[in-house]
Amino acid sequence: MAAATQVLVVGSYVQDQAWFVARFPRTGETLRANRFNTGPGGKGFNQAVACARQGVTTAFIGAIGDDPLGGIAQQFARAENLPCRWQIRSDQATAASSITVNARGENQIAMNFGANEHLDPQFIRAQGDLFATSRLLLLQLENNLDAIATALDLGERHGLTRILNPAPVHVDLDAALLQRADIITPNETEFSLLLERCAGVDADPATLAGQDDATLHALARRLGVATVVVTLGARGCFVSHGDELRGDADACYRLAPENVKAIDTTGAGDAFSGGLVAAMLLFHDAPFRRAVTHANRVAAMSTEIVGTAPAMPMFEAVIERFGT
Question: Which residues have a catalytic role annotated?
Answer without folding.
Answer: 270
